[in-house]
Amino acid sequence: MKEESKITLHPLKSLMIVLIGTEKVITLTVDENDLVMNADGEIDCPMETTLRKNKITAETMNKWGIESVRLVEMTSEKEKVLYDFEPEVVLDLLQL
């Protein structure tokens, strides 16, 4: 069995999940322990893990009127949207 190596970001970078709703924007920091390498060799994270750690449920997302969910890479100078998800996709993940 292949041993998995720990994935780390550059010290000046962080990954955030940004929930954009009709009346509020919620930003969650992704723990480095939750990072994985996807099939394309890019750093990714299981979004549902971060949402559950922050006690965000499908019911909460519906109540907040979430219209978009983004995975964003943040540096001191800029933010880069890595993925932009429809809320239905994320709601399905939370139902599993």
Overview in brief:
By secondary structure, the chain is of the alpha+beta class.
What does this structure look like?
This protein is of the alpha+beta class. It has one domain. It is built from 3 helices and 6 strands. The strands form 2 sheets. A 4-stranded antiparallel sheet has the order 2-1-5-6. It starts with 13 loop residues before the first strand and ends with a helix.
Q: What distance separates the N and C termini?
A: 27 Å
Written as H for each helix and E for each strand, in order along the chain, the element string is EEEEHHEEH
How many domains would you count in the coordinates? 1
Mean pLDDT: 81
Question: Which spans have pLDDT < 50 for at least 5 consecutive residues?
Answer: 1-5
Q: Give the percentage of residues in beta strands.
A: 25-35%
Structural class: alpha+beta
Q: How much helical structure, as a percent, in the residues? A: 10-25%
Number of strands: 6
Strand order of the largest sheet: 2-1-5-6
Radius of gyration: 14 Å
